[in-house]
Amino acid sequence: MSNATYSIDQVCRLTGLEASEIRFYEAVFRDFLTFTQMGLDANRFNDDHVQILSHIRELIHTHGRSIDDVKKELRQVFQTKGASAAARAQVHRARVISVTSGKGGVGKTTLVCNLALALARRGKRVGIFDADLGLANCHILLGIKPQFNLSHLIEDGFRLEDIVCEGPEGIRVISGGQGVRELANLTDSQRRALLREMDRLEREVDVLLIDTGAGISENVLRFAAFADEVIVVTTANIAATADAFSIIKILLEMDPAAKIGLVANEVKNMYHAKNVFHRINACAEKHLDYGLGDLGHILADENVKVANQLRQPLVLSCPQSPAAQCIESIVDTILSEDVFRNHKKPSCFAELIGAIKRNMAGVSA
Ligand SMILES: Nc1ncnc2c1ncn2[C@@H]1O[C@H](COP(=O)(O)OP(=O)(O)OP(=O)(O)O)[C@@H](O)[C@H]1O
Ligand SMILES: [Mg+2]
Question: What is the CATH topology of the domain spanning 95-360?
């Protein structure tokens, strides 16, 4: 969180509120807006104020909540002891999980799509951000056709709801398209618009999965580094495991606190999977002093190929198949609090985009 301060005009642009609305909410929600060192009387607003005003706007304007309801919710949020003001305002943020690999074609997109659907079937609100610029994108496997992508949001001022495409089980898919490349060169107003939209998405989903594409490309690293947790997918193939180790090494160099878990895909059986895990984990322990999370495996299963070809996601079209059962076990592990949860890092996709911009501008994030 920066020490920046904002005039009321700037706050209008950042929150989408009118000045009169801001003054009104200031008066009504005064208890919640004067908590920082800076009093509102100073006539300047800081990041915390902006964040809370955005949250209030979201609850009232988008969800039609009453002033009393909002006060009740804010009171609950603020009772969370020990958390910073910003963290308290972020209580409802999504868990951001990035899925990546060293080598291509190891099953990332298959995992992202089926994971999303399996999570949705368990009642989670799920979003997919498809940051893969390759051909076999998430929408193809999900059998949907998004008309618009991130470029339309960045370039043409589209709103998030215009570019979000609804998939099976109500999952929300955002196609990065060429917009993923444009993230590196946003103007300030484009970035603010994007931040606002992403912030809204984060409040509307519980889990946001990012399909990053493969290799040590800028996209893979920037998305993986800023997610809460990273799933590295590999097959048993020697080249794939070597590349998995390389990407883990780079991720840890970028962020020593990263939470990284491994999924062994297309394995023959559990022993085969354990062998793959132990091979990579032993290297990580020895050379990087890091223990990987064992998130499980997916059996090699012809049903996967058929489902992908028919564009009928496996967990829906063939839920009893061996691979679909494996994906359900992976979901169990991901949802278990202890195994694969980064408690250190507050989830914030918006911060991710902000950090990208700062990184690209050469200023330390
Ligand atoms: N468990 C599995 N059993 C059998 N085939 C699989 C399995 N997982 C993935 N596949 C097949 O492997 C191929 C690659 O899968 P997928 O497109 O998901 O990989 P990817 O890592 O996203 O690739 P890319 O790096 O090109 O984005 C597909 O043909 C898919 O059907
Ligand atoms: Mg893919």
Answer: Rossmann fold (3.40.50)
- pLDDT tens sequence across 217-276: 766 676 776 688 999 999 999 999 999 999 999 999 888 888 999 999 999 999 999 999
Q: Could you tell me if 6 and 13 are in contact, meaning their C-beta atoms sit under 8 angstroms apart?
A: no
- Ligand 1 binding pocket (C-beta < 6 A) is 101, 104-110, 132, 134, 136, 213-214, 265-266, 298, 300-301, 304-305, 308, 323
Residues in Cβ contact with 70 at an 8 Å cutoff, skipping those fewer than 6 apart: 29, 56, 59, 60
Please state whether 43 falls in left (phi above 0), alpha (psi between -120 and 50) or beta.
left
CA angle 353, 358, 360 (to 5 degrees): 95
Q: Which residue has the tokens 């914030």?
A: 348
- CA 300, CA 81: separation in Å to the nearest integer? 47
Cα–Cα separations (whole angstroms), residue 247 to 221, 239, 244, 264, 332: 9, 12, 5, 15, 25
Residue nearest to atom 16 of ligand 1 (CA): 107
pLDDT tens, residue by residue, 75-85: 776 665 444 45
Q: What is the CA(304)–ligand 1 centre distance, in A?
A: 8
Q: Which CATH class is domain 5-82?
A: mainly alpha
- Strands 126-130 and 165-166 come out as unpaired
Q: Which residue's C-alpha comes closest to atom 29 of ligand 1?
A: 305
For the chain, give every residue range classified as CATH 3.40.50.300: 95-360
Question: Which residue has the CA at smallest separation from atom 14 of ligand 1?
Answer: 105
Distance 159 CA to ligand 2 centre (A): 26
Q: What is the CA radius of gyration of the chain?
A: 21
pLDDT band of 41, cuts 50, 70, 90: low
d(CA 198, CA 192): 10
Which mutation among 217, 231, 308, 318 tests ligand 1's pocket best, with the greatest number of atoms within 8 A of CB? 308
Q: Where in the chain is the domain with CATH 1.10.1660.10?
A: 5-82
Ligand nearest, relative to CA of residue 107: 1
Distance 103 CA to ligand 2 centre (A): 11
- The model carries a pTM of 0.73
